[in-house]
Amino acid sequence: MSKKFYELTPDDRLLELSLNEQTRQALSNRQSAVNAQLVENYISDFRVPIGVVHDILVDGKRYSVPMAVEEPSVIAAANNGVKMLSDSVRVKMSRMAMIGQMMFSNAVDLSSFILTHRNEIFEIAKRAKPSIYQRGGGLLDFKIRKVSENETSLDFIIDTKDAMGANIVNTIMEAELVLFEQFKPLGVILSNYATNQLVTVSAAVEFKQVGGFEVAKKIVSLNHFSKNDPYRAVTENKGIFNGISAVVLATGNDWRAVEASGHAYASRNGQYQGLATWTIVDNKLHGELTLPISVGTVGGAISAMPDAKQALSIIGNVGADDLRGIILSVGLAQNLAALKAIASGGIQRGHMRMQYRALAMQVGAHSDEVIQVVSHLIKLKQVDASIAEKVLMEIRN
Ligand code: NDP
After folding, report:
1. How far is the CA of 187 from the centre of ligand 1 (A)?
2. Ramachandran category for residue 170: left, alpha or beta (phi over 0 → left; psi -120 to 50 → alpha)
3. Taking Cα atoms as reference points, which of 245, 241, 243, 211 lies closest to residue 342?
């Protein structure tokens, strides 16, 4: 009997796909034994460039931070933003914890049950995952949250220490199910809306760092716009996530979880708003960014992927809480760079050199030709692929 697709080796799977020989070979050459164990139907790796934000000062400590991102100019802008943050970024957070949900859709009243079974609920959690208690974490609390007339969530607050904690939370939640059987729960699962992992970073910026008081005022007005206009807010937050998601990805964390949670938080007032806030305080531009951020420095893909461990080692020996502050600081720097560029006449000028590099490669320039093509294109008023191709041909002749 022939094997099912998922039972084939990565190379045999490639043979099943309609690919030309060159593509098949290229995909085969990029395979890695470790990643083949991570996902089903593995065929190859997809590479994303990694760069660093160099020398960001967070709570008085200097870090180099890896960013994995395909968009040209994101890393350049982040570094630019870091240079403008004259003082150290300050980080504020309280004890971080994940939320696990037990969901009911049958108008249950759990209040007296959870009161009388309080100790048992804590005991079940301890038995389900004793190792997280040895690390100083575990179930901290649980509370009833009414979702609608007939829907209730029993929220379990669980400290997962340096792990992102999805598996830890789900293990505890599934162990708790049995105790609540009589109430016919719909199911249990962690919530990715990490409101018990709210982190705030803030920084003060001298006006001269952004090009003067007038630019600073424009930055404040632009940011204010994002509090009232979802069209602007989405773009401003996308810019913030340019920084955040790039570090989250480089460190092997789950960027979908961080983004989903961040966007939900941006809508917490009933309207989608910009996540950062810029004001003028004591003759300085003051920036603040708060969002829920659930990341780890152990567990999940981080422990499995050498790439993630290597990227984390660039930052140094940090725990999950340090990492949260560092990630948000990069998000704030990224936000400042974007607002400064818009306030001083647009982002295209800064962007174009990086975009033209991509365009040069798209039209077939080799690495040693890219700089020459870019320096020609930068002088032209109008640029497109056919013009880039012509410039490349001229250089070659
Ligand atoms: P793991 O279960 O892989 O890792 C956590 C384990 O790491 C702990 O149980 C602990 O095991 C060990 N550990 C070692 N040092 C520490 C420390 N200092 N602090 C805490 N734990 C430590 O992963 P997570 O529970 O973090 O789950 C994350 C993974 O789950 C991610 O890959 C995510 O994508 C995935 N996932 C996400 C979902 C979602 O977001 N909705 C749903 C399901 C999965 P021990 O104590 O035994 O050594």
Report:
1. 20
2. alpha
3. 211
Instruction: Find out whether the beta carbon of 128 lies less than 6 Å from any atom of ligand 1.
Output: no
Q: Is 197 helix (H, G, I), strand (E, B) or coil?
A: coil
Q: Is the CB of 296 under 6 A from ligand 1?
A: yes
Residue 392 tokens, joined: 């490349």
How many whole angstroms separate alpha carbon 351 and alpha carbon 71?
A: 10
Alpha helix ranges (H) inside the chain:
10-16, 21-29, 33-38, 74-84, 111-116, 118-128, 130-134, 166-176, 207-210, 213-228, 230-250, 255-266, 300-304, 306-315, 320-343, 348-362, 367-377, 385-396
Mean pLDDT per block of 10 residues along the chain (397 residues) reads: 93 97 98 94 97 96 97 95 91 96 94 97 98 98 96 98 96 98 97 97 96 97 98 98 98 97 98 98 96 95 91 96 98 98 76 76 85 83 84 86
Residue type for 270, please?
A: G
For the chain, the residue count is 397
This prediction's pTM: 0.90
Q: Distance between CA atoms of 164 and 256, rounded to whole angstroms?
A: 13
Task: Report the distance separating Cα 79 and Cα 334, nearest Å.
Answer: 8
